[in-house]
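User: Please fill in residues for this 337-position structure.
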């Protein structure tokens, strides 16, 4: 099994290296790719050094079985043919192919089998905020169909990549040392001491692209007609996104039944003792695999509604871990070339 990581120097690329090592992913060889910015740089994987190769249109992917791509949408679009032409399965973290009819969009806890039908050799990893929400809502949807979702996200700086995470740290440094922020580049406004109610570009309907990803991708992954209305917000946590989620089911559900379903759901960790100040927080879910969920309670404004709070490491479950779990599933069912 030969594995490639495209975008190895990035926030998600680096997480792939950690997760593949931690999970002892069954592989014999590894090859790393990047642009001219990181080509030649060396990274350690399980005690061995690997040099980043320049991503080019050639036959470098000839012997690759699985290629994890996390180098942005335009790179994925440009190189998909080069990556897949010799039979490699491309598991893509960008949004380039997510809504294409001939590309499955997969969260293993929800729709693993969709990964088996991939006419273009591409499997799309969904949007990070959407992945974490559907992992939590799937066991509830199994109790009673979810018709509507209202969600507000609290997304960390690292969701915009390694340089964005560094920018937030730099802004706090400037505030302490100089009393004002000078560096505003990766976000549209100062993020330190602030929240920004815009993630990704604004669309014609005044929702952002990130919010429309939550609407469209949730339907595709859950094979559902559910409607999701989202407000996605950047906050100044460094790692791990959080979400406040209201959902309306066809039949009214008891909170106790929801908690019970969440307790046994794969990929979910219930942390729910609010009377004793126990609920999920991003500092705790950072670096962890599960999506943490708590504050489960009845919606006061809707008899068929309930509400909960979740938080999860979006570089892990929202990106690299989900992609590796897809690959593990393909290996388990014998579906790699
Ligand atoms: N960060 C998250 O939480 C998260 C979550 C879900 C999905 N994603 C998606 O994952 C992808 C990567 O995100 P990230 O946060 O890791 O970004 P990042 O930290 O900015 O890293 C971007 C990576 O892409 C590589 N790259 C850019 N242009 C390239 C090119 N022309 N050829 C080869 N490599 C190229 C960069 O390599 P060089 O250093 O060599 O330029 C770098 O390794 C994006 O599509 C993002 O939307 C991110």
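Assistant: Residues filled in for all 337 positions:
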């Amino acid at each position: 099994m030969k594995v490639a990581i495209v975008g190895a120097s990035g926030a998600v690329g680096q997480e792939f290296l950690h997760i593949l090592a931690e999970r002892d992913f069954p592989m014999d060889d590894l090859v790393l790719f990047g642009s001219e910015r990181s080509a030649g740089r060396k990274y350690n994987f399980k005690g061995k050094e690997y040099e980043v190769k320049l991503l080019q249109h050639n036959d470098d992917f000839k012997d690759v079985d699985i290629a994890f791509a996390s180098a942005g949408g335009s790179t994925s679009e440009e190189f998909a043919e080069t990556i897949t032409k010799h039979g490699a399965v491309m598991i893509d973290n960008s949004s380039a192919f997510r809504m294409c009819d001939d590309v499955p969009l997969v969260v293993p806890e929800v729709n693993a089998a969709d990964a088996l039908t991939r006419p273009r050799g591409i499997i799309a990893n969904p949007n990070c905020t959407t992945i974490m929400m559907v992992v939590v809502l799937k066991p509830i949807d199994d109790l009673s169909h979810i018709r509507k979702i209202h969600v507000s996200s609290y997304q960390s700086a690292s969701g915009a990549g390694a340089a964005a995470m560094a920018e937030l740290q730099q802004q706090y440094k400037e505030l302490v040392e100089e009393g004002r922020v000078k560096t505003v580049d990766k976000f549209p406004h100062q993020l330190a001491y602030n929240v920004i109610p815009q993630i990704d570009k604004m669309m014609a309907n005044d929702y952002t692209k990130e919010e429309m990803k939550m609407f469209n991708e949730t339907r595709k992954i859950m094979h559902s007609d559910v409607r999701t209305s989202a407000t996605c917000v950047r906050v100044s946590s460094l790692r791990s996104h959080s979400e406040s989620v209201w959902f309306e089911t066809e039949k009214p559900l008891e909170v106790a039944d929801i908690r019970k379903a969440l307790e046994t759901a794969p990929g979910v960790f219930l942390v729910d003792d609010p009377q004793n100040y126990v609920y999920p927080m991003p500092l705790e879910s950072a670096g962890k695999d599960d999506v943490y969920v708590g504050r489960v309670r009845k919606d006061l404004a809707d008899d068929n509604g309930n509400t909960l709070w979740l938080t999860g490491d979006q570089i892990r479950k929202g990106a690299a871990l989900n992609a590796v779990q897809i690959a593990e599933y393909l290996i388990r069912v014998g579906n790699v070339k």
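For context: The two ends are 10 Å apart (CA to CA).
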